[in-house]
Amino acid sequence: MIVRPARAEDAAALVALWNPWIENTAITFSTELKTETGLAADIATRGPAFQVAEAEGALLGLATFFPFRAGPGYARTKEHTIILSPAARGRGAGRALMSTLEEVARGQGVHSLFAGVSAENPEGVAFHTAIGFRETARLPQVGYKFGRWMDLVLMQKFL
């Protein structure tokens, strides 16, 4: 397995990887499906802040970071997303992606990373805890999907 910066030509595979999580799970509160055009634009804009894990020509997952909030006072704090294929879970791809993403973030002067994890995703909370993130807040009923309200767990890691 290798971790590398995402390329525009990865967009179709990333859509196929990401959209089932949006459509079928509560790990993301989003209901808006990703598009190849949108992901290609994100890849171009974020550059090395958009990484993928690949093995034998197949993408196993992605990790990317983006502004936590608008405004210059927040410039050194970022939020990230990590998405893995079901086959990649438990095989080290998540740790490898996050390790590389944290390296990129440090190189860009980022001080801390946030993860917004659905409380309905205990595996996501456990993963982030295992790699050094700590729960800083639990926001009740801020997400709505599948006809129900869901809590958001904010987790932070200082780099």
UniProtKB/TrEMBL annotation:
It comes from Salipiger abyssi. Residues 1-159 form the N-acetyltransferase domain. Keywords: Acyltransferase, Transferase. This is Phosphinothricin acetyltransferase. SUPFAM superfamilies: Acyl-CoA N-acyltransferases (Nat) (SSF55729). It comes from the Bacteria. Its EC number is 2.3.1.183. It is an enzyme of class 2 (transferase). GO terms for molecular function: phosphinothricin N-acetyltransferase activity. Pfam families: Acetyltransf_1.
